[in-house]
From TrEMBL:
This is DNA-binding MarR family transcriptional regulator. Keywords: DNA-binding. It comes from the Bacteria. PANTHER family: HTH-TYPE TRANSCRIPTIONAL REPRESSOR YETL, TRANSCRIPTIONAL REGULATOR, MARR FAMILY. One of its GO terms (molecular function) is DNA-binding transcription factor activity. PROSITE patterns: HTH_MARR_2. GO terms for biological process: response to stress. It comes from Solirubrobacter pauli. Residues 1-135 form the HTH marR-type domain. InterPro entries: HTH_MarR-typ, MarR/SlyA-like, WH-like_DNA-bd_sf, WH_DNA-bd_sf. The keyword tRNA processing does not apply.
Amino acid sequence: MSASPSPGSIVLLIKLTRSVYRRASEDVLGLKLKAYMVLTNLREGGLPQQDLCASMQMDANNTVLLLNDLEGKGFVERRRDPADRRRHIVVITEAGQEALRHAERAMESLEEEVFGSLTAEDRAALRDLLSRAVAEEPADQAAA
């Protein structure tokens, strides 16, 4: 009797992603998961709106809708780029920083739930592997 094949890494990542999406609700984070990702991208400083689209792997229309919502809540501001007045730089506000801190505390608890069976070393190794895989993604695929 042969052992059944184990699921591939992509299948496991999809299952894990679905589990996280179910658990990382707006009630838990205080904001939507995509909004959390935007604020995380803006933590280190403002980004041109087009660069934010690319880093989020979202099309421009959906990014604008998301930014409209975040701007309406006072979490981000879109400012004209002084070097090119046609472009907007998206920056996180103090209210956005506070929302991000709250969401990060919730995400720490969620990570503990999801990765509870992994050691600290396992988690660090997984984070490193995922970071490398994301960093090595071809540029033309990232924007798709």
